[in-house]
Amino acid sequence: MMNCLIHITLALVMPPLLLGVIGKTKAAFAGRVGAPFLQSYYDIFRLLRKGTVFSSTTSWVFRAGPVVALATTAVAALLVPFGAHPSPISFNGDMILYAYLFALGRFFTMAAALDTGSSFEGMGAAREATFSCLAEPTLFFALITLSRLSSSTNLTGMLSNVSGGAWLYAGASLLLLVGGMFIVLLSENCRIPFDDPNTHLELTMIHEVMVLDHSGPAFALIQYGASMKLFVLGAFFVQLALPFATGNPLADWGVFICSMLLLAIVIGTVESVMARLRLVRVPQLLVAAIILAAFSTLLVIR
Amino acid sequence: MALEWFAPSTLIFSATLVAAFSGIPSLLSPPRLAARSQLLSVILMLLASVTGLAGALASLVTRHSTLFQLTWSLPFGPLQLGIDPLSAWFLLPIFGVTGCAALYARAYWHADRHSASVRPLTFFFGIMTAGMAGVVLARDAFSFLFAWEIMALAAYFLVSTEHEKPEVREAGILYMITTHTGTLGLFVLFPLLYLLTGSWLFPSPLTLTASPGLPSALFLAALFAFGLKAGIMPFHIWLPSAHANAPSHVSAAMSGVILKIGIYGLIRTLSFFHGVPLWWGCSVLLLGGVSGVIGVAFAIGQHDLKRLLAYHSIENIGIIFMGVGVALIGQTVGSEPMMLLGMAGALLHVVNHALFKALLFLGAGSVIHGTGTREIDLLGGVGRKLPVTALLFGVGSVAICGLPPLNGFVSELLIYLGLFHGIQADGGGAVAVALATPVLALVGALAVACFVKVYGIVFLGSPRSDHHVAHHEAGWQMLLPMVLLGVGCLAIGIVPGGIAGALQYASRSVLPDVVGQGGLLLSGVVPLMVLTVVSLLLLALMVLLGWWYRRLISSSTGFAPTWGCGYQRPAPRMQYTASSFAEMLIGLFSFALRPKQHRPDKMKGLFPASARFFSHVPEAVLELLYIPVLQELYRRFSGIRRMQSGILQQYVLYSLITLILLLAASYF
C-alpha cells in the first residue's frame, strides 16, 4: 500500500522535474546558468491561472484533446513498474494496454490539431501519425523479447526479470533493445534529434506545432501530460537499461529516482551535442530502431 | 409443447423465413402504397432481426445444439440443417446488423425519393439476410452451396441498385465474376471433402486427420474460396468498388456480415481437422498480416470515404485471419492458451468488426445524405451540422483502431495475448508469431493515422467546398441504428466479461481439448474483470479532469480565428487536406501502393499561370497484376471462343456430347 502511494505520488509530482534537469544540462553545456530546476512547475502553474482563447473553428474535440491525453498517460503510469517495485495495476496483457493508451491519447491530440483547420497543425498531426507508426513495431519487438526472456505476459513480470543476471545471459539482445528503445523514447517524446521543443519555426516542428492553438489551462495540461509521458516511457527504458535492485524498498525508490534523473541528464546531453535531423531523415532513423529491435528478438528466439 | 415454440431453433428458422419474405409487400405493392409497404417490409425485417437475435442468444446461453435432417430424392443424399455454437455466434452479427441496416434504409432510401429502386432493394435485402443465415445453418454441401449462391446473387443485385451509373455497373460485374470464381473453389472443396469422408454431409469437428495430400489440397481450396469471399489480400479486388458503390446500408451489411460468412466457411472447414501442420497456421497468419498492413496502407491513400472504409474491412479481415492463424499454430505446438485466445480473439473480432464497421458505413451514409458527396477532400466541418453523427462516427473510429476502452481493443488484446503465449514455445511457430506481433502493432498504428485523417478532415475544421456544406442532421430512423451499434461497441469494450461465457463456448466448440476437463477457461488466461476496472478508471479520470478543466476555463474565455502564424487572410481551402495528411505514409508504402501523381509543368516566371496537381492511389493489385495477366490469357485463348456461338441448341448439344463421353469413359 505504501509503495502504491509512493508510486502514484512520484508519477504525479516528479515528471516536470525531468524537464528542469534536461534544461539545466543543456544550459551547462552551453555555459549558461539556465532556468531553475523547478521552472517547468512554475510554467504549469502560471498557465493554469491564465485565461484561454479558443479558435472559433473548434468544437468539443479540441477541448477534449488535452484532457484525454493526460488521462491516458496517467492510467499508463499505473501500469508500468517503477524500478524494482511492481506496478499498482498488473495483469496479463497490461503491456498491450500500456501501448494502446498512448495511441488513444495521440488520437485525440491529433484530432484536436485538425479541429483548428490550420494547415500548420495539420502538418504536425500528419508527422506525428507517420512517425508513431514507425515507432510502434520497435516497442512491440522489445515487448516480445522481454516476454520470451521472462516467460511472462505482464509488464511487471517482464521488467523485473531484467537484472544483472539477464544482462550476462542475453546481453547482446538487451543492448540492441536499449539502442532501439532509446530512439523510440526520443521520438515519442519529440526530443532532439526528432523535434526541437524550443524551435520557433512552425514548418519544422511536430508536437509543438500540433498544440499551437492551445492556450492557458489547456496548454498547462498538455505540458504536464507531455512531461508525464516522458516519465512513464522513461521508467520503462530505465528498468531496461539500469536494472539495479538493492532489496531494500526505500533504497529501491532512491535508485529509481536517481536513474530517472540520470536519464534526464543523458537526454540533455544528447540534445546538447546533436542537431535536429532533417525531416526526411527521421523515418530512416526510426526504421533503424525497428531493425535493431528485430535483431534482438531474433537473437533470443533463434 | 408450448415450450417448443420458443426453442432457439424455432426462433432462428422462423426469423430466417420472415427475413426471406420481408421484401414481398414492397415488391408487390402498387406505386401509391410504396411508402407504406416499405414500412411493412422494414417492420418484418426488424421482427426477423429481434427473433433471430433472441434465438441465437438463447442457443448460446442455454448451450442448445440441434440437427435436422430432411431426406429427399436428389442425388446428393439427405439435407441437413443445424444450430451449433459456431453458427449461433455468426447469427448474432447477421441478424443484428441487417436489422439495424433495414431500419436505416427506411429513411436513407425512402420510397418517395427512390420509387423505382426501392422494391428490388428491399426484396433482395431480405433474401440476402436469409441466404446468409442459411449458409451458417447448412450442414451439407448441397444446402450450403444453395444458400451461398442465393446470398451471392442477392448481394449482386443490391450492389447494382444504381445501375444507371457506369461505375456501379462495373463494380457489380467485377463482384459477380469474383464471387463465382470463389464458388468454383467451393466446387473443388466439396468433392475433396466427399473423397475424404464418403458423404456430402459435413463431418463432425476434429474427425479428419490433416495429413498431406487430399487434406492439404482441401485446405488450399478453402483458403481460396472463402478468402475470396472474405476479401483477403490478394483476392480482395472486388471489395473496394462493390462496397463503395452500393447504398450505404447495403455496404454496412456487406462489410459487416457477408465478409464474415467467408470467415465462417474457413473456420467451419478447419474445424473438421485435427493435428494440423505448421504451414497451415503460418500461411493463414501470413495472409492475415499482409492483408492487415497493405489493406490499411491502401485505405490511407483513398479520397473516397466509403472506399476508404472498404479497405479497412480488408485490414480487419486480416486481423481476424491472424487470430485464426494463432489458433492453428497453437494446435500444432499443443498450446492450449494460444488456441483459445486466437480463436476467441478472431470470433470476437468478427462481431466487433460487424458492429463498428456497420456503424461507420451508416455514419458515412449520413454524411453523404447531408452533404451530397463521398469525396473526403471536399468535406470539412460536418460535425457542426451533424453533431450526433459526428459523435457516433467518432466512437466507431476509436473502436476500429482497437483503442481502449472500446470493443476493438478487447479482441485485439486476445489475439496479442495469443501471440505472446506463442513466443514461449519453440521452433518455427515461435518465429512466425514473433514476427507477426509487431506487424499487428503496425496495423494498429496505421489505422490510428487513417482514422484521425478521416475524422479530422470530414468532421472537424471548416467546410472545404461551398457546394458540399452539411445541411441537416439525419432523422431518428437513421440515428437509432447507429446509436444501437455504438452502444454495442461501448458495452463489449467496457464489460467484456459479459460475453466471455458465450465466446468461450463458441471457441471451444471448434478446438481440440488438450488439457481435458472441458479445457482452459478464458478467464484463466485473460483478466476481463480487471479490464472493466481499468476502463472505468480511465473514463472516470477523463470526466474528472474534464470537469476541472471546464471550471478552469469558465472564468475567462475568448474566441478568435485560428492562429495563422501571422498570415492575415486564412481561407478554408488552405486547411490541410486528406491527401496532404496521407502523403508521407503513402511515400513510405509506395512500393505496394504505386500511387499516381500528376504534377504541373514547371512553373516559370514571376506570374505563373494557374496549375493543377492531383494524386491518386489506384487498386494496384487489380490494375497491375490481374488485368494484364487476364488480358494475356484472353489473347491466347481467343481461339476457343469460337465454341461460344450464343446459340442455345448448340450448348445443349455440348451437354449431350459431354454426357455420352462420360458414359463411355465409365465403361473403360
Descriptive notes:
The complex is a heterodimer of chains A (302) and B (668). Chain A is mainly α. Chain A has one domain (2-301). Chain A is built from twelve helices and one strand. Chain A is globular, with a radius of gyration of 19 Å. The mean pLDDT of chain A is 90. Chain B contains 25 helices and seven strands. In chain B, a hairpin with an 8-residue loop joins β1 and β2. With 668 residues, chain B is mostly helical. The mean pLDDT of chain B is 89. The N and C termini of chain B lie far apart (57 Å). The chains are: A mainly alpha (302), B mainly alpha (668). Chains A and B meet through β1, α4, α5, α6 and α10 of A and α15, α16, α17, α21 and β5 of B. β1 of chain A pairs parallel with β5 (557-560) of chain B, so a sheet runs across the interface.
Task: Describe the structure in brief.
The complex is a heterodimer of chains A (302) and B (668). Chain A is mostly helical.
Distance between the termini of chain B: 57 Å
Low-confidence stretches of chain B: none
The N- and C-terminal alpha carbons of chain A lie at a distance of 41 Å
Considering residues with a beta carbon less than 8 A from a beta carbon on another chain, report the largest interface and each chain's count: A-B, 81 and 81 residues
Task: Give a count of the beta strands of chain A, DSSP E runs of length 2 or more.
Answer: 1
Overall 3D shape of chain A: globular
Q: Work out the helix count of chain A.
A: 12
Query: From N to C, what is the helix and strand string of chain A?
Result: HHHEHHHHHHHHH
Morphology of chain B: globular
Structural class of chain A: mainly alpha
Q: Helix- and strand-based class of chain B? A: mainly alpha
Give the DSSP E fraction of chain B (strand runs of 2 or more residues).
Answer: under 5%
What is the domain tally of chain A?
1
Please summarize the sheet with the most strands of chain A. none
Radius of gyration of chain A: 19 Å
Mean pLDDT across all amino acids of chain B: 89
Numbering strands along the chain, what is their spatial order in the largest sheet of chain B? 1-2
Radius of gyration of chain B: 26 Å
This entry's quaternary arrangement is heterodimer
| Percent helix range of chain B | 55-70%
How much helix, percentage-wise, in residues of chain A?
Answer: over 70%
